[in-house]
Specification:
- The protein is α+β, with helices and mostly antiparallel strands.
- Helices cover 35% and strands 24% of the residues.
- Helix 1 crosses helix 2, helix 9 runs antiparallel to helix 17 and helix 11 crosses helix 16.
- The longest helix is centred in the N-terminal third of the chain and has 28 residues.
- The N and C termini lie far apart (167 Å).
- Pfam families: PBP_dimer (PF03717), Transpeptidase (PF00905).
Amino acid sequence: MSTIRTYSDNHGLPGWRLKFVLWVLLGFALVLVGRLFYLQVIQGSFLASKAEQAHQLVREIDPPRGRIYDRNGKILASNITVYRLYATPQYVEDPESAAQQLSPLIGVPAKEIADKLKQGVPWVSIATRLTTEQKEKIEALHIPGIGFEPQTARAYPNGSLAAQVLGFTNFENVGSYGVEGEYNNYLSGEPGKMIAEQDPAGNWIPVAQRQVIPPKPGADVQLTIDATVQYYAEEVLQKTVKEQKAKGGSIIVMDPYTGEILAMASYPTFNPQEFYNVRNTSVFANPAISSAYEPGSTFKIITMAAGLAAGVITPDTRIDDKGYLNVYGYTIHNWDGRPHPNESMTEVLMNSANVGAAYVSTKLGEDRFYRKVQDFGFGAKTGIDLQGEATGILVLPSSKNWSPINLYTNAYGQGIAVTPIQLITAQAAVANGGLLMRPYVVSKIERNGKVIKENRPTVVRRVLSRQVAETLKSMMKTVVEEGEYQVARIPGYSVGGKTGTASVPVNGQYDPNVTIASFIGYSPVKHPKFIALIKIDQPKGSRWGSEVAAPAFKELARKLYTYYNIPPDQPEQIETSSGEQG
């Protein structure tokens, strides 16, 4: 029997393979359609934006910086208009010639300018901070492809006045040190934008036709500083430092009731307008808040306050001061070595007796003495709103570095380091009736006439009862009016104060000829209008606080009486003084 075979006309792939290929092709088609849908519909706006960005250049525009005023509205820091010189390189016809013409006018090497003008970019900065005079000279050259953009630069119209308080701005207009640094986020504002675009042919559109989003100016800052009081403080400080051939110094003037800083002067100083010319950049720091030193006898007020508050002494408590004290293998001497038999606590302050101060601290004991010292804020920052505040050095009994002799020496301001702002803040608590206030230099911040931040007087804590504070104020008044050294006495006005003369450690040893001379005082005593600290570093004319710092306080106080129109609270002294002169 024969077999009949039938053959299909399809000589290609078997049926199942054909179906497989068709399904694969269909899958590819679906993926392609899906991708096109995703790109054109879902991602269309995003990709269009990316394409647009590829033909754009966005550059920030610096905002005008906020101004800084004193408490009376006097401008301490403002802005001036300067100019950035820029170029659109594709429009500069002869880069080499342009560079040669620009170089002497802007102080930039011609090669550096030419290299920038040859770059294939839409915009390039050639120079910044050009004056109006420079701008006009360059415009007279009629160089195609270059232009100017107004900028703001910081200006300090009062020169070096309050330099360490203000700080300065660097070449990027960013605040450094002082208020400029501490409040930079408020002062700096928000940058704007300039958007450059290419035309369809790939050419960059000229600057004049570019989109500009203007910047938002910074906020204005008003200080507690009084420019007039600041001027007086700097005048007295500079005079004293130069007369005494001193290394430097600081003066702080404060409202004792609010903690507002009315003046904060330091010397040597600098002009923030020309910070780039300063060789010794240590002057940028503010020693009134950052420099810790041994306060010497001005600290005896704190010791006496602690003793009065604890009730271990009264102003009339008496001791037999032999002029020296042997303890723990050391001998403590009074500054002049003199004994003071039957000496009252008021007389301890009048005589500035180290032995008497040590008596008070030992009556208190370690716990009560150091607790009150910390209560007054020593060993911690005051919280003043300025950059660079130091904590000082306070070694407590719990520290391995503490020695029992510290209880004696710390009582008269040796072996402890404080900053000027710590000391005046603590002493202001005595002057105002017992309240420790937080010191501050910025009163408010405004934007477009609206207050966005305001500092108000802040009580940290009560450190003395009003009765104890008034008792101590009376003792300090007696020190000035009846003490052996009445150099701070001002006829007609009551003054409470204390001198200080602290030896400076040199190579681990105290050198009696290298000192810090100081005076802290307030007036009038009953309701002080001001409290001031005078600190003179390493004077060579005289080493004593009574001969260096106290006269400076007296000179400053007289200026403040006149400026604030403070009437005499002891007019009978004026008559007596006049009679004696006659």
